[in-house]
């Protein structure tokens, strides 16, 4: 019947979280800063900051 042609929603870029080491997928909230995103969540971001403060 209909060939669902709704754009390329299937393809989303992904990265590995530097804190937990798990892959995470592009989200719309990151569209402006995707190049700078390093963590999958705020929790991981805080965790990493906490860890790296130790010198
Ligand atoms: Zn993470």
Protein architecture, described:
The structure is a single chain. The chain is of the alpha+beta class and 55 residues long. The chain has one domain (14-53). Helix content is 22%, strand content 11%. Strands 1-2 form a two-stranded antiparallel ribbon. A hairpin with a 6-residue loop joins β1 (14-16) and β2 (23-25). The model has no long low-confidence stretch (mean pLDDT 84). It binds zinc ion. Zinc ion binds at residues 17, 19-20, 22, 39-41, 44.
The rough form would be described as elongated
Radius of gyration: 16 Å
Structure annotation, total helices: 1
Strand content: 5-15%
Largest sheet: 2 strands, antiparallel
The mean pLDDT is: 84
Total beta strand runs: 2
| Topology order in helix (H) and strand (E) letters | EEH
Level of helix content? Answer: 10-25%
In spatial order, strands of the major sheet run: 1-2
Provide the structure class. alpha+beta
Q: Into how many domains do the coordinates divide?
A: 1
Bound molecules: zinc ion
Cα separation of the termini: 62 Å
Uncertain residue segments? none
């Amino acid at each position: 019947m209909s060939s669902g042609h709704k754009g390329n929603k299937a393809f989303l870029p992904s990265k590995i979280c530097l804190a937990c080491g798990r892959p995470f997928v592009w989200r719309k909230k990151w569209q402006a800063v995707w190049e700078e995103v390093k963590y999958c969540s705020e929790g991981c971001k805080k965790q990493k900051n906490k860890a790296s403060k130790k010198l």
